[in-house]
Specification:
With 875 residues, the protein is an alpha+beta fold. Helix content is 43%, strand content 14%. Helix 4 crosses helix 7. The protein starts with 5 loop residues before the first strand and ends in a 5-residue tail after the last strand.
């Protein structure tokens, strides 16, 4: 009996899964049940096998594929590339091509089709392989159809698919790939329906996600969908959540959601559930595009497995693997902050409820953050993505982050905590509101022994260790009121954002952002302006200008200044800059990172770049600051005119004043905290230098691989090889973690060794993120992955960066717009962009891997969109 190369979906039987794959078999069952499934046909596994047989490397494939489950991940990725390369030029056999085209013409060669993989292991009850194989939409024409089918076949051998097969111990040589060719539905609205809550496994509820356009918008995570939760028995809508497209009205109404729910019950009578159903709405009619079992969610997860961790916000402060010294310093400090701030509200929060080290990197706990946001008035838990950033708002994994009440920590309110601390709380709050001199709210206490007052030569080892422990931030420092002022400042900014969205509708977020523009009160932003001033001074004196342009090392540059008339005055201004801003660096919370004051070549390189840009007609930062201030004050008046209610106007004035103060306090307190860390770093390096000649360390930087608890004279300056062995082991772990590809979101207790880099659509021309700073700017992209004195951002360019902190401020000063992979409304990059008045979109996720330097890019900071208008030619 001849096995067919193609089959009409209407003729597919359920027992033909080995011939047509899981997706096609399920569609065939639904079509025979008279459900609204678009017509189409299937290219069978037989056709796929004939394609493989046409390869001259067929025998090599038969040798490699059975052994893949035994190979390490890196080897699988290399073999995947070898396999796809070997099949890339294999022609589709003539008989297979004829069968496909004959079926295609019978269905209508003028039509538009969706071409989807249908592997024999796909859409099964125990594993669905959802998202691992390829699908292509809007396919029209002979060549496009054959090309899409070929790509679906080859997707069986992608690195992700082969790795997943190996993980399940499924032999790759025993898996077949069929392809579904289905008439394309021109969807007005589309999405996914789950016949059980995918987050909790609750089978009494239905969850529907919807967005305008094709269902790919929902499945791929390109946009945040609307979400409906229905009671399965009564079809009552229990909850509805707006998506990124919703605006003033939902794209899906309750009646259509209920019709979908009823239709899903018919599907569940035919296919074993719970089910994941893709659907589309076109011309008022509902269409079912595919249905597969929900896998891996039937067993109720443990508390640990339900925890969700994100690098939102913390990813810009600590972008790299954290050293043991920094982490051991950070946790007690956070414990002091948590205990101090939340106990004043009547709650006890432990630091390990909020933060953890996973794969050597720091992550925040989403569950705890959502529970805490529930305590704040006017702030919704779903606002967490806008406030802090993080892929939970824009990634395909968003649908997994549907936290129910059982997933949130129980925050027990203790009224006695409030009563006991009420006098101090009231005093702190009154001081925050009444003290006009903001500077007095921003000063952190220095340690008893000023680190600049002791001489290394005369300081004993024991005194040095004592000085370091006194300088490092501790739990006691976390109880300082000044750090609570930092939290209060951020709180007022969050309230301003929430009320602006409520009072000014769709413009609310942009208005709140503009109202914190051009304040001129933030020290990190002033760092860029002060560097510009250095360049302006150098530009006034030809000899000084030549010295800056010609010298790349600060040592020779400093000596050359001695013979220049304006050199001494310039050097005084230079030293003043380092005194005010020299504690900054990329990843400045990490103690192992050298500061600007230690790397003056970096600062000199920035001044040199500014000197070249000065030749252009760029507005000076001082002029720009004045303009932004005038625009902000005009907007303030317009907002007050729009608020007709006098109570709202009074509240708006009061909140705006303290939100603007709060932004400065938040950034300046953080800057002063980092200044203290830079002092501790220098002392730790001195300690490391003393340990090296004693044989206790191989390098002064080894001291950063110790912990705070190990800073004891008797331990550090004792005898034996124990210290060196401990440091060597920690350095090896640090190096291993540096090679990992950290995901933006970690679910439960994931194994970091299994982390894989996210696949991206490199050809995409439209990206979406958070509208962090309003305005629209178009220019050439400048993609910078890290700070390098050789790099510069020219006037009018769009800076594209993975994350930013104060050390990036010099690059902001000359940019026309900003695009950042990580960050929310409270992140430093967003605040700095607003201060400089730059259109900015943050939390884009993969902008640095999709946009190339030289691309023409438009940044829409009003809507959170990035458009790549023109691609540059790869070098």
């Amino acid at each position: 009996m001849n096995v067919p190369l193609t089959l009409s979906l209407a003729g597919v039987e359920n027992d033909q899964r080995g011939l047509v794959g899981g997706k096609a078999a399920n569609l065939g069952v639904l079509i025979r049940a008279k459900l609204p499934v678009p017509p189409g046909f299937c290219v069978t596994v037989t056709a796929f096998n004939q394609f493989l047989d046409a390869s001259p490397n067929r025998q090599e494939l038969l040798r490699i594929l059975p052994r893949l489950s035994e190979e390490p991940p890196e080897r699988i990725r290399n073999l995947s590339q070898e396999i796809t390369d070997s099949l890339a030029d294999v022609a589709i056999p003539v008989l297979v091509e004829q069968a496909i085209l004959t079926e295609w013409r019978e269905f209508g060669d003028e039509r538009v089709y969706a071409v989807r993989s249908s592997a024999t292991v796909e859409d099964a009850a125990d594993h669905s392989f959802a998202g691992l194989f390829e699908s292509y939409l809007n396919v029209q024409g002979r060549d496009a159809l054959l090309s899409a089918i070929r790509k679906c076949w080859l997707s069986l051998y992608s690195a992700r698919a082969l790795s997943y097969l190996a993980k399940l111990s499924l032999p790759a040589d025993q898996v077949g790939m069929a392809v579904v060719v289905q008439e394309m539905v021109p969807a007005e609205t589309a999405g996914v329906l789950f016949t059980a809550d995918p987050a909790t496994g609750d089978t009494s509820r239905l969850v529907i996600e919807a967005a305008s356009g094709s269902g790919e918008n929902v499945v791929s995570g390109r946009m945040t969908p609307e979400c409906f939760v229905l009671d399965k028995a009564s079809m009552t809508v229990l909850k509805r959540t707006a998506g990124s497209q919703s605006g003033t009205s939902m794209v899906l109404d309750d009646q259509t959601a209920q019709q979908l729910g009823t239709l899903s019950q018919r599907v569940e009578q035919i296919l074993p559930g719970p089910l994941d159903i893709e659907w589309a709405l076109c011309g008022g009619g509902l269409h079912l595009l595919q249905a597969r079992p929900i896998t891996g969610r039937r067993k109720k997860k443990t508390w640990e497995e339900r925890q969700i961790w994100t690098n939102a916000n913390v990813g810009e402060t600590l972008p790299d693997v954290i050293t043991p010294m920094t982490y051991s310093m950070l946790m007690p400090l956070l414990q002091g902050l948590c205990g101090n701030f939340f106990s004043r509200l009547g709650y006890r929060i432990q630091a390990d409820q909020l933060i953890a080290r996973i794969g050597g990197r720091v992550y925040f706990n989403v569950n705890t953050c959502v529970a805490l946001l529930k305590l704040l008035p006017a702030v919704k838990p779903e606002d967490i993505g806008e406030i802090f950033g993080g892929a939970q708002e824009h990634d395909a994994c968003k649908r997994q982050i549907q936290l129910g009440p059982d997933d949130l920590p129980r925050l027990k309110f203790n009224p006695w905590l409030v009563v006991r601390r009420l006098p101090k709380v009231l005093f702190m709050i009154m001081r925050f509101y009444w003290v006009r001199n903001t500077q007095s709210l921003q000063t952190l206490p220095l340690p008893p022994n000023d680190p600049h007052s002791f001489s290394p030569e005369s300081c004993s080892n024991e005194l040095l260790v004592q000085t370091i422990r006194a300088t490092l931030p501790t739990q006691e420092l976390g109880e300082e009121p000044v750090l609570s002022y930092m939290g209060l400042g951020a709180f007022h900014l969050v309230l301003l954002l929430a009320l602006s969205k409520r009072w000014f509708d769709a413009e609310g977020s942009a208005i709140a952002a503009r109202l914190t523009t051009g304040l001129g009160t933030m020290a990190p932003a002033q760092a860029g302006r002060d560097l510009w001033n250095l360049a302006e001074v150098a530009a006034l004196h030809p000899e000084l200008r030549r010295a800056v342009a010609e010298e790349t090392d600060f040592g020779p540059f400093e000596r050359r200044l001695q013979s220049i008339t304006a050199g001494r005055a310039f050097l005084d201004q230079w030293n003043g800059f380092l005194s005010r801003h020299g504690h900054h660096t990329r990843g400045e919370v990490e103690l192992i990172n050298p500061r600007w004051s230690e790397t003056p070549d970096v600062v000199l390189g920035i001044v040199r770049n500014y000197l070249e840009i000065l030749a252009g007609n760029l507005n000076t930062p001082a002029t720009r600051l004045t303009e932004l201030g005038e625009q902000r004050r005009t907007l303030e008046k317009e907002c007050l005119d729009r608020l007709k209610n006098p109570i709202k106007r009074g509240l708006f004035r009061w909140l705006l004043r303290h939100a603007q103060r709060g932004v400065a306090i938040k950034e300046n307190v953080k800057s002063e905290s980092v200044r203290r860390l830079s002092q501790a770093r220098l002392q730790l390096l001195e300690l490391g230098r003393r340990l090296v000649p004693l044989g206790r360390c191989a390098d002064p930087n080894d001291v950063f691989f110790l912990t705070v608890d190990e800073l004891r004279s008797e331990y550090l300056f004792g005898s034996g090889e124990e210290l060196r062995k401990i440091v060597a082991a920690r350095r090896a772990e640090y190096a291993r973690y540096q090679k990992l590809h950290p995901p933006p979101v970690v679910f439960g207790c994931g194994n970091p060794d299994e982390w894989q880099p996210d696949l991206i659509e490199a050809a995409v021309d439209h990206l979406e993120g958070l509208p962090a700073s309003p305005g629209v700017a178009t220019g050439r992209a400048r993609v910078l992955l890290e700070i390098d004195p050789r790099d510069r951002v020219l006037a009018g360019e769009i800076l594209v960066a993975p994350s930013t902190d104060p050390a990036w401020s010099p690059y902001f000063l000359t940019a026309a717009g900003i695009v950042i992979d990580l960050g929310g409304m409270l992140s430093h990059g967003s605040i700095l962009a607003r201060e400089y008045g730059l259109p900015a979109v943050t939390n884009v996720g993969s902008a640095t891997r999709i946009i190339r330097t030289g691309d023409i890019v438009q940044v829409d900071g009003n809507r959170g969109l990035i458009h790549i208008l023109e691609r540059s030619t790869p070098q």
